[in-house]
Every structure is written in structure tokens, then in C-alpha cells.
């Protein structure tokens, strides 16, 4: 993993409002490369990875001449921030109340 990505992940983990992150390889079967936080462990982590990949692909499919750079999804309790690139998806789960 590139050093700048390692540094970014370390910085993310240090924020008290961050509940966890998940780094996913893009493809037909998204696979978790790295994660932090209990919310992204085991089967729940796999469900999050698949959901994030579907969300990005769905939004990207609706944009004919543009590409998604950053997405922010707010629920009643959390905020999911997604940063896609050609090879990876980085999703960060954040508690906006913190």
C-alpha cells in the first residue's frame, strides 16, 4: 500500500468521530483490503463493502460524462463518506454527533 494511503488511513483512525473505515478493491466481487472498527468486521463488513460498491456503481452509471469523486450519505445516526477511484473505494463511517 502506498505510504500516502497508509498516512491517510492512520489520520482517519485518529479522529474521535470516525467509527471505522473500509478500503475495498473495485470489481465484480468487491473485496475488503483493509478495515478498522468493529462495524466493518466479518459479515457486516462484507455487506457494507457490497452496498458501497453498488451505490457508487449506480450513481456512476447515471452520470454519462462525469465521474464521482466524493459522496456523502447521511442517515439518522451516521454519515458515510465514500471516496472512489479507479481501483479502490474508501468508505468512512462517521458519527456526526461527536
Automatic annotation (TrEMBL):
Pfam families: Robl_LC7. PANTHER family: DYNEIN LIGHT CHAIN ROADBLOCK (PTHR10779). It comes from Laccaria bicolor (strain S238N-H82 / ATCC MYA-4686). It comes from the Eukaryota. Belongs to the GAMAD family. Residues 5-94 form the Roadblock/LAMTOR2 domain. This is Predicted protein.
